[in-house]
Amino acid sequence: MLIWYNPTQPIQSKSVAIFLDRDGVINQDSPEYIKNVSEFKIFDDVVPALKLATLEGYSLIITSNQSGLGRGIIKPRDFWEIHFYLVNFLKANGCPITAAFYCPHHPEDGCSCRKPRPGMLMAAAEMFNISLNRSFFIGDKLTDMEAARKAGCKGIFVVRKSNAYYSRSNRLIFRNLFDAISSLSK
Ligand SMILES: [Zn+2]
Q1: How far is the CA of 55 from the centre of ligand 1 (A)?
Q2: Cβ distance 128 to 16 under 8 Å?
Q3: How far is the CA of 93 from the centre of ligand 1 (A)?
Q4: Which of 74, 99, 104, 167 is least crowded, fewest Cβ atoms below 10 Å from its Cβ?
Q5: Taking the alpha carbons of 125, 77, 43, 171 in that order, is the dihedral positive or negative?
Q6: What is the pLDDT of residues 88-133, one digit of tens each?
């Protein structure tokens, strides 16, 4: 598990977090993997959404599978360049993240961090004293929802494609991140 955290970022007052998947939620995903910063395109609603979450007192924590590392498709140097581009972009726009957890493993490695396993969420909860049952995990895949369920936090589905085929029963599904986070504010 790869962990980055911001040592100067105070933990938000609520000790609740919004966990965020990265590819497909924050930036455009690709079946070819996001291999370098030139392929990393952040959606327009991300800054207003995360600013709202920050105002509401949520800590923002990214939890992302990055098996492109374990497969040798993404170079570590390019991976970290993307990471720091994102961190700096969000900080400059008034919605700094507290931490990012990445699983770099190949699916066949059998690690405990690759979603749908809850390892990254559990590690984040322990590290930042987060109340999982009051926290949310926003993702765009069923494996994200499964990780949320296993960790005991509420899964929120963001499906940006108009041809979504997922079952809509028993799930909160939103078309974008801003709508998802707006639903959490009172
Ligand atoms: Zn892993």
Answers
A1: 32
A2: no
A3: 30
A4: 167
A5: negative
A6: 999 999 999 999 999 999 999 999 999 999 999 999 999 999 999 9
Distance 173 CA to ligand 1 centre (A): 26
Spatial separation of the C-alpha atoms in residues 134 and 27, rounded to whole Å: 26
Joined together, the tokens standing for residue 108 give 């066949």
Classify residue 27 as exposed, middle or buried by CB count within 10 Å of its CB (0-12, 13-18, 19+).
Answer: middle
Which residues, in sequence order, are CB contacts of 148 under 8 Å at separation 6+?
19, 118, 121, 136, 137, 139, 154, 155
Q: What is the residue type of 145?
A: M
Q: Cα–Cα distance between 51 and 45 in angstroms, integer? A: 10
The token duo for 168 is 């809509």
pLDDT of residue 174: 87
Q: What is the pLDDT of residues 47-70, one digit of tens each?
A: 999 999 999 999 999 999 999 999
Q: What is the pLDDT of residue 12?
A: 61
- Cα(117) to centroid(ligand 1), Å: 9
CATH of 2-182, one of 3.40.50.1000, 3.40.640.10, 3.30.710.10, 3.30.70.120: 3.40.50.1000
